[in-house]
Amino acid sequence: MAASLSHRICSRPLFKAAQSATKRPNFYPAPTTSLLSRRAFATPSTTDQPRLRLGSIAPNFQAKTTHGDIDFHNFIDKSWTILFSHPADFTPVCTTELGAFARMRAEFDRRNVKMIGLSANDLTSHDTWIKDINEISQTNLQFPIIADADRKVAYLYDMLDAQDMTNIDEKGIAFTIRSVFIIDPQKKIRLTMLYPASVGRNTAEVLRVIDSLQTGDKKGVTTPIDWVPGDDVIVPPTVKTEDAREKFGDVRVVKPYLRFTNVGK
Length: 265
Fold this sequence. Notes:
It contains ten helices and ten strands. It has helices at 2-10, 14-17, 33-42, 72-76, 92-103, 105-110, 123-137, 152-156, 203-219, 241-248, and strands at 62-65, 68-71, 80-86, 113-119, 145-147, 178-183, 189-195, 233-234, 252-255, 258-261. The chain has a five-stranded mixed beta sheet with strand order 5-4-3-6-7. Strands 8-10-9 form a three-stranded antiparallel beta sheet, with no helix packed on it. A two-stranded antiparallel sheet has the order 1-2. A hairpin with a 2-residue loop joins strand 1 and strand 2 (68-71). The relative contact order is 0.15. Residues 1-46 have low confidence and may be disordered.
């Protein structure tokens, strides 16, 4: 019961969150056959969705954003890109997340990473919400937020919630979950993270995995558990130890298949 309530609170606007837990808002009807039919009607068949595997090209789309109309592949250009979704505007968890990402803009810029958010509301709502985010987090949010009221991009990237059939809007359209897609300059999906609507993301982890991906690409290494820049990295099994020593210098052999070196920050 508590988990279900938390999920609904995190998926509805802030001004709705104070409503009594014993009173179900009209736009969160009890799950019935009618509701299930509406959900099915609003959700395209899985055959309509591309297979979003790591290494596949990120699907392109055109959309309206707070920075104007975009073509997603043109937006990526030659940069790394983070595409992350939010259930709706004026939701408490999303407000804290966007504020945190906005404050870290300099760190992402230093790594040649663009950020773009997505929320299931129109542009008018987005603009008002951004004012709240800037006020609450004492920041200046400058990356675009996609207006995806019809969930076209959410369906394209499978950013939907299937675990709670009540998590829909007044039109019966499923809210998005908290998805993160990290896309490289070749427009390939390199990493994904999926969070339920009730769980906020970790900005430090998003930054850490970008560091790991970029270090691996530049140095030809892999990274161990909890790695951060400056820690030892792993020599891939495909590289012979003598070749690794010629390339990296010192190599610490723990097992024939587990060898460490250091490539700096």
